[in-house]
Amino acid sequence: ALIADESPQAVQDEPAESARQPTVSAERRSSNRALSPFRDQPQPAISPASDATTPEPGDRSKYQQLNARHYLIQLGNLASRDAALALFNSAGLDPMRCYLIEVDEGAGPRWLLLMGGFDSVKSATNRLSSLPDVLRNPWVRRVSPLQRTRG
User: Fold this and answer.
1) Of 38, 85, 95, 144, which residue is least crowded by CB atoms under 10 Å?
2) Could you give the C-alpha distances from 136 to 57, 75, 77, in angstroms and in order?
3) DSSP classification of residue 129
4) Are 141 and 13 in contact (CB under 8 A)?
5) How would you class 99 by CB atoms within 10 Å of its CB: exposed for 0-12, middle for 13-18, buried for 19 or more?
């Protein structure tokens, strides 16, 4: 398992700018908390924008609340939000433990699918072994460098 603060896929360490975040109604946020996908059951391939009841991972504002000294697992680095949500759904991940953030790596926006706030490298590394096979090359990294990225 790769454990690092940065990797070839890592984003540049730059000061945060105001994040572009979609507005989500309080009603939708509360309905997302009530739903939890079953991890062992495959999720149907759907368009994320078409199904308002599909639970989604947290956004940048929720990610910013994590302890900067904790660790997370980067599950994917994707070209579009829809592709990141499709990966999230196909893996059957818990929306309360995952985050989807947009970053600007200089070559255009990318979407990172993250799982975290693990309090140690060991606990994050232990979680790697139980991730679904659909997640290719997940790796452990610190929370703090991504909290400073542009989005």
Assistant:
1) 38
2) 18, 7, 10
3) T
4) no
5) buried
